[in-house]
Design a protein that fits this description.
Blueprint lengths: L1 H7 L6 H11 L11 H9 L3 H24 L10
Helix pairs in contact: 2-3, 3-4
Amino acid sequence: MEVKMRQEGYIPKSVEEHLKVSLRTARKKLNPHFASTIDSCMKEHNVSIEVAREKIHAVKEKSWKDFNAKWLNPDNPIQSRY
């Protein structure tokens, strides 16, 4: 998929698809041939860049809240070591 993104300028059809590729490659949009998460969000929802940024921001906020809720849970075995 990474090769298709780079060589063909492929933009994943959803944010979920983009994140699966991004997590494997751990690359930022340093190369204009790689679609960004914003590009994928715009394509998936057929929205402007501004709306896509808001949607991605909401996803990031929810992710941090979920992470913190799990980390701060007193039943979390990792947290109890600290």
